[in-house]
Amino acid sequence: MEPGDEPHLLFGFRAGADFQHSGDVTPKVGYSLSPFVQYDYARLADRLGLGLRAEFTFDRFQKLVTAYAYVNGALQSYRTTRALTYFDFALLATATAYLGRLQPWVAAGAGVALANFHTAESDFGSGDCHVARLLVLAAGGIDLAVGRRALVGVHVEYRGMLAKPDYPLGDGTSIQVFSDRLSLSAAFMYQF
Question: Who contacts 45 (Cβ-Cβ below 8 Å, separation ≥6)?
């Protein structure tokens, strides 16, 4: 191994917009925060790094809706929020091309998604649903070295939750509120 080729540890933070692929019920636009740690364990031909990444992601989707409640015996409407949140933990295998200051990469992996759907709308019964499901994900991005050890980048990530549960409605029917997600984010990383 030449100096500078040793395996390295990368700490990163991503923040960006997420988009959901479901029907009219689920809020479609939200935000995402995702700190991660990556360890490159091998470098091939001084150009291709192979690594492992552990990441924690928080996603929140919400939209403004109208709900109804009885106040002093009269039915009144009010504005409230329909919200969907995810807490994900995932492990990924990564491959990074080292092209000078430019570092394009791809990754794939699996993990666990803890999700919560909440609304005060009476059409949705209790208005709360909590699930824990396995997820698979694929990601890619382009990072640019901006200092000796710092990088900035643009990342895209697709997350698919396996075995999505149905959400029961008060009328006996059910709908899907949990779905696949696509994230576009800006990232800041530091190498140790």
Answer: none
The answer to whether the beta carbons of residues 109 and 140 sit under 8 Å apart is no
Tell me the C-alpha distance between 169 and 115, whole Å.
18
Q: What sign has the CA pseudo-torsion 123, 127, 130, 136?
A: positive
Residue pair 182/19 in contact by the 8 Å Cβ criterion: yes
**CA-to-CA distance for 114 and 94, rounded, in angstroms?**
24
Structure tokens at 81: 């929020």
Report the pLDDT value the prediction gives residue 4, as an integer from 0 to 100.
46
What number is the average pLDDT over the span 38-65? 91
Q: What is the pLDDT of residue 3?
A: 38
Q: Which residues contact 110 (CB under 8 A, 6 or more apart)?
A: 90, 91, 134, 135, 136, 137
Task: Please name the fold of domain 9-191.
Answer: Porin (2.40.160)
Rounded to whole angstroms, the Cα distance separating 25 from 20 reads 11
Is-contact 161 180, C-beta < 8 A? yes
Give the mean pLDDT of the chain: 85
Which tokens go with 171?
């009328």
Domains of the chain, by residue range, sit at 9-191
Give 147's Cβ-side CA count (13 Å radius): 9
